[in-house]
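U., I forgot to send this yesterday:
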Amino acid sequence: MEQPMTAINPILDDIRVFLPRLTAACESMAKLLYQQLTDQTWQQFGDIVEGIDDLYRTLNAIQADMEHSIGFYALKEVLARTTVALSEQFQAMNQCMDNEDYVGASDRMKYELIASIEQLAAYVGEPTAVLEHRYVSNLTYFKAHYPQLYLQFSGRPREEVQYQLGYAKNGQPNLYIEHASACLYSQYDPAHEAQCWVESLGDRSGSKSHCMVFGFGFGYHVRAYADAYPEHWMYIYEPDEQVFQSAMSVVDFQSVLANMQVKEIRVGGSRLDRSQLFHRYLKYLKEEPATLALPVYNRIRAAEQAEFFTEMKNAIKSFDSLNVMCDRYGWQWVENELFNVVKCLHSPSIHELSGTMKEHIAVIAGAGPSLEADIETLRKLKEHAVIFAAGSTIQSLLHFGVPPHMIVAMDGTDDNYNAFKHVNTADIPLLFSPMVHHRIMESRVANMIHVSLKSDTVTLNLLQSGDEEPVFDATESVTGTAIQAAIYMGCQEIVFTGQDFSFPGASVYAPGAKHFSKQILDSTVEQAAMRIENVQGAMNPTNDSMMAVLEGVERIIAKYPNVRFTNTSQWGAKIKDTVWEPLSSVLERVRGTMLEGNSVSNRVSALPRYDEGRSAEISGRLDQLYEQLLANEQRLRKLDKILADLAALSRTNPNKCGKLMMDVNQEWHAIVHSLPFQALYVKVFRNEIIHMERDLPDAVQESSLIKRAELTRDVVRPLIQTLLAGTPALQRIIEEAIHRVNKEKQLFSTT
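Result:
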């Protein structure tokens, strides 16, 4: 029967205490053997012989116990070798004593026995109490400096069987991973391994100041890298929580991290957690990304490592795409959100629909080419499931005469407006994000529900909905919003139809889609240089944009492991974490569940809107936004004047320059924490703000006042002038938003 490690650990702790004493006694005896032997010397020698004999017997007993114990693979071989060596060296020493060769006995003790005892001490490592104390100290450090790590590992038991702490021959901590049959590091000298690894990098990392590292392990490699490149910033991802937790017992994180430039440490977690890590990395990245990986993970975590860096590549594409989108649509998005405030005031929140669809499955229809093949089945399914139209899909559904139960819309571009302007959707409930194109909303007076996305900076700051109302993740397509909405409403299964995420049959849309010209669609397919596997095992053409949309949907799906996701597309791309099933089979499964034709619409019509008090609060914050924008304009003008004079003052009046730089910090702090900055600037001027934030640390860290003043001016002033130039247009947009709210208020007060 296997014994737990806890039964053997106390014996090992006794050995850890005993070995230094035995070493000291042997060192003393090795010197005494060169002198005239006295009765006391013989007594001391006898004590050593007895100690070595006790150690030998204890080691044999432990080895026997380990044969019936779990979790000691890393130590078994070491103890076996040491026991054999002790026996041979002990016998050789005794033979010298029997032959009265005391010099030979001293040599055996000094150069063989002591070396074996010290090596054994290195292998058995530190006492349990020391490991436990270090773990607690690391938790205390994390609580102050990395609170997410403190919450993650506080009170969490360590897996000691699959992850066995051990020590290399030089005494440095190591880890044996049972299920991988591998040690993290060299079993002789982990630090030397790490140093050789850094040297092998050559010039690959020297010119790149921000590095993403896959794997922390016990920190040898990142420490070696930090020693070689002390000016580089590291973003560290350790995929294995148990590896990191093992490190907490043997690594003093405070002393290690104090000598490293670490921006972020993440351990395990979800795809969303990794996305947040990538975003923080990209936010401060100035050059091409640099990536490193713990060498052993190239072997034992190859698939996970490849997926991690694939996710990172996708994050880079999304980040770059968002840069382009913000440059192109930032003003439009802000205008949409502000103009749609009035629609939020006069429509219920999705909060009112929480859990109301528990008895039904949701079908989210996309406008991919495969929709046509399943349209008749979808028509029948409408009596049994809640049908959501993902944005512009409404064109194709109405083209086939299959109106959905609900439309979900969040796209704020003119293309989306073009999709809606020729279809009559007044009788169909519309779930909208305030970022949707305001012209889509202008003609609607009823059948609306609003939901905020994390990217809706304007309405998040104006509505301030609190914890009771959800805020959905922003995704690359409206399908991600529809998924979150259906789950929030209680649907336990999400069925995809027409969600092809590629161009099957060299087509982009199902019949009925009219918001793009044939020329544009043909060009899109012709330029689709990528391929993706479809549900039939063949390959569909696709492009970066479509791949980003698919990755975003898969990221949302991964957040809901307890929800069933079914892909019914006959020709579309495979979707991770979904099961494929024909839509006709889904219909057969749910025939017993009925959904009355107008039940969803009737339910939406009966939902309460914001009361007068809440509406007044939101209107008041809109007024505050305008007033604070005017105040910010004055602050920005003041900052611009200070920054213009800063460089000259650094030479003529350093004291005044230093004071003015403090004023710059104070004024900028007030602007950054203002409502206009949080709601407007971060969206309209996102890229300019990111550029400033990337370059500002160089100015802050500059020791020369003259150079610091020049850098501060060159980094901050262009952004200040950009904000000033955009302020009049923002004023006009807010004025129009206030006008719309007041106009609607008057209309309702007279009816």
